[in-house]
Amino acid sequence: xxxxxxxxDGGARMAEWENASLKADPEYGDRLEPVxxxxxxxxxxxGDKGQRMxxxxxxxxxxxxxxxxxxxxxxxxxxxxSNQFLRQQVMWEYDRxxxxxxxxxxxxxxxSKSALFSELQRLALEVxxxxxxx
Length: 134
Hints:
Shape: globular
Helix content: 10-25%
Number of domains: 1
Strand content: 25-35%
Order of helices and strands: EEHEEEEHEHH
């Protein structure tokens, strides 16, 4: 991101920016091949159904996730680590903001929702709410 300070009051405005997720995700959603899906309940109470998550490991090693209850999607900055469970890796990077937007993976070239994200949404919707705290 390049910021240019051109205001008399010292404020900066964005003159030029590069969307890192577009660089990281050169393909649209329906051109990708998921090799593993997983969905889970984090147990965090972000809504009446908790926090439902779903993730996919892609054939190229990228990991994509969808947080249904907070409407956050992302592509992890690190490729899939075979020594970790998928959900472990997603939550570790999620909590540390180690991801970029998955906008181009959510949509096809024509703007419609991709099959990849339709499946992530379906899986997240099937996750049951967490148990009530005692």
